[in-house]
């Protein structure tokens, strides 16, 4: 079952924006926090909306008129209330930018050509422009990452708006995510629209279950869980291998019945074999559970499985 997964997360400070930019643009030499990134494959990532500068620089470019308006306002403000543009942005109750992530399960992308993945990605961008209402000029960067297990898109936008302010009786700029995603109910409607748009393009995807209270785990929490189940699977495997080695050594020194293929076992050896069979049955069952769970979580690390249930 493949889900149409669309997730958004507010970026609250300019420092956070810079950090996310370094990650999305693969500017680091290595990614210890995310070992799933294959740096040698990063050359295959595709910029859907290019960003040839730092995220903060692109943010300033998008908000230059907003900055002019703020600087003009500060000319008449009392010194103790003065804030430069960066301070005002960081102290604002609104976000600095919004990061949207688009993906699906690994089965959806299995055996899919790069051209078809790009067609899916372009469908996601149509959703941003036509359903969410952002313009290309508001996008800092949109990048299709193909250097991890599951293809996915990071799209960072600035929800800049200009609207009439009754308090000053004129139009003013602001950054307001709420003008694009009003509340959780509207986000649920957007999830419907996103799934509908992609299915209209010929992609067989399902909408996640509505109305559940499941919350997303962080990427770090998901990775911790997958590593724990991987360790449990490896421990089960080692237990089996250790006991199996004991059986092999025991059989080497067991007496073979003359003129027969039968082997004579003493009582101790017999009970060792029974214990091994019980252990084998139990550990194999555990190993299958652990390994399957690990594989599922590892494949879905970037999919944030809770997302498909949450909205």
Short description:
The chain has 311 residues and is an alpha+beta fold.
Provide an overview of this structure.
- The chain is α+β, with helices and mostly antiparallel strands and 311 residues long.
- The protein has ten helices and nine strands.
- α8 packs antiparallel against α9 (267-299).
- The longest helix is centred in the last third of the chain and has 34 residues, at 219-252.
- The protein is elongated, with a radius of gyration of 28 Å.
- It starts with a strand and ends with a helix.
- The model is unreliable at 213-217 and 299-311 (pLDDT under 50).
Percent strand equals 15-25%
Structural class: alpha+beta
**What is the N-to-C order of secondary-structure elements (H for helix, E for strand)?**
EHEHHHEHHEEEEHHEEHH
Q: Count the beta strands.
A: 9
* Number of helical stretches of at least 4 residues: 10
Distance between the termini: 17 Å
| Outline type | elongated
The biggest sheet, with number of strands, parallel, antiparallel or mixed sense and barrel status, is: 5 strands, antiparallel
């Amino acid at each position: 079952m493949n889900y149409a997964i669309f997730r958004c997360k507010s970026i609250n400070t300019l420092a956070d924006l810079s950090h996310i930019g370094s990650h999305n643009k693969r500017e680091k030499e290595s990614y210890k926090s995310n070992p799933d990134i294959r740096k040698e494959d990063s050359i295959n990532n595709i910029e859907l909306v290019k960003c040839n500068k730092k995220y903060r620089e692109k943010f300033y470019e998008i908000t230059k008129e907003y900055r002019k308006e703020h600087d003009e306002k500060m000319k008449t403000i009392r010194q103790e209330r003065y804030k430069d543009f960066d301070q005002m942005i960081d102290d604002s109750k609104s976000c600095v930018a919004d990061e949207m992530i688009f993906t699906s399960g690994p089965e959806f992308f299995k055996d899919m050509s790069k051209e078809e993945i790009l067609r899916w990605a372009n469908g996601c961008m149509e959703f941003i422009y036509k359903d969410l209402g952002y313009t290309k000029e508001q996008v800092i960067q949109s990048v299709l990452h193909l250097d991890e297990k599951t293809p996915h898109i990071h799209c960072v936008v600035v929800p800049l708006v200009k609207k009439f302010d009754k308090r000053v009786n004129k139009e003013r700029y602001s950054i307001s995510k709420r003008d694009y995603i009003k509340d959780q109910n509207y986000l649920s409607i957007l999830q419907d629209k996103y799934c509908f748009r992609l299915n209209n393009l010929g992609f067989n995807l399902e909408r996640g279950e509505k109305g559940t209270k499941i919350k997303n785990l962080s990427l770090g929490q998901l990775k911790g869980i997958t590593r724990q189940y991987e360790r449990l699977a490896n421990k089960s495997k080692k237990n089996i291998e250790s006991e199996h080695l004991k059986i092999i050594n025991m059989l080497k020194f067991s007496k073979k019945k003359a003129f027969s293929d039968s082997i004579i076992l003493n009582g101790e050896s017999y009970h060792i074999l029974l214990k091994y069979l019980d252990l084998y049955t139990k550990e194999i069952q555990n190993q299958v559970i652990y390994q399957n769970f690990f594989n599922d979580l590892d494949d879905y690390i970037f999919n944030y499985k809770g997302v498909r249930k949450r909205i």
